[in-house]
Structure formats: structure tokens, C-alpha cells
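SAMPLE LOG
Freezer: B-3
Tube label: C17
Construct: single chain, 232 aa
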Amino acid sequence: MKMSGINLFFLAVLAVFASLLTDAYDPDPLQDFCVAVNDTTNAVFVNGKICKDPKTVTSDDFYHSGLNKPGEIISQYGSKVSLVFIDQLAGLNTLGISIVRIDFAVGGVNPPHSHPHASEILLCTEGTLYAGFISSNPSNPGDKNRLFAKILNPGDVFVFPKGLIHFQYNLGNDTTAVAIASLNSQNPGVVTLSKAVFGSDPPVNPEALVKGFQLDIEVVRQLQSLTWIGNG
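STRUCTURE (predicted):
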């Protein structure tokens, strides 16, 4: 039996509405704020995380100080990332934003890493930074990934798209550098490439890394023997 044009039209409309209902979600907060709290006995609302009772919320829940102070640089990378994520500022919960300060020693680097949950915008406030990101794999496996990089001076801004590998390096021969970065997630997540690949627990099978990185087995074992830390 043939279907009329009207019946086909209504079936198409129903299919569209069905797909909309399937994909529907509400990514925005459903209330003014949701200050995170660990004490479940004082929590009355849930919106992404357990929320503090709005009646007990104060201005301090939305306040954090200290980004004017240099971070103590002790890592082998020569950099320190001072975080203001949800763990440092509970009022960020459900708001989809966070901020960090990055201090660089002479020759310091914020090593190649990615943020699975956020894009990032970085402002250079002191010194000279070489900053860049690398594109995802092109459709042709033989083509090279593209590097997008700039030299940043105070007042310059650079954007790192969500999920892409990026880095910053202090070019100053005898000067430190500072940057402030904002991310569009309260918990952007960080994957430091060197630590993830060579410092995982349990370690990746060395033979897989030999093939994957085209390295000698002794080089891989030596890299896996090092103590790796994340950006921080």
C-alpha cells in the first residue's frame, strides 16, 4: 500500500521530534548558584554536585585570593600552575569556568598537555612566552599535524581549543614569565603527555611504545624509569 505525501510528512515530523527528545538535555544551572559542599548533612539541593544550602551561602564561597603571588617552582619543568578550580573555589560549581596562574622560571616550560573538558584562553602578563597547540590528525594519515604557535609578550592573548595538545615555554634568557589562563570548565581535566605515556601505573608494555614511538627498547625503558609528574 502506498503512503500519501501527507502521511510521509507527518512521519518525518515525528522522527524529528523523537530525535530531539532523545538528545535533549539541560546543560545550564537550574538555580542561581550551587556552592559545592562535602558535608551531606548540610546539603539540600543537587545540580551536578551536592550543593550547599543556599541559606548558608556567604560571599566567601565566591571568593579566592592569592593569584597575585608567584607560585613556588619546584618541578623539573621549571613552572608552577596555581589552580582555582572547584576544589579551591566551591562557588564555581555548575558555572563552567575556572582560572589559573602559571609561573615560569628561566627556561621553564608548561609541558605538552591537553584539557579533555575545556578550551583555554591565556594572557601573558610578564616575560616572553612561546605558546602553541597542535591540531588533531588530518584525514590523510601521511599528512602532518599542524602546529599553531606565537611568541607572546605582556598583553598578548592566545587560545587553545578544547582537547588539543598545547604548551607554553619561557623564551627569556634571564627573566621569569607569568601567564593567567581561563578555562570554560570548573574541572577542565589535565593529561600531561609524558607522564601519561611513560609514567602510567601499571606501565604501558614497552614493546607497544617501541612500535608506537619508533624508539629503541632501551630508550623506552629509560624513560619509563624516570619520575614523571603532571603540570602543576
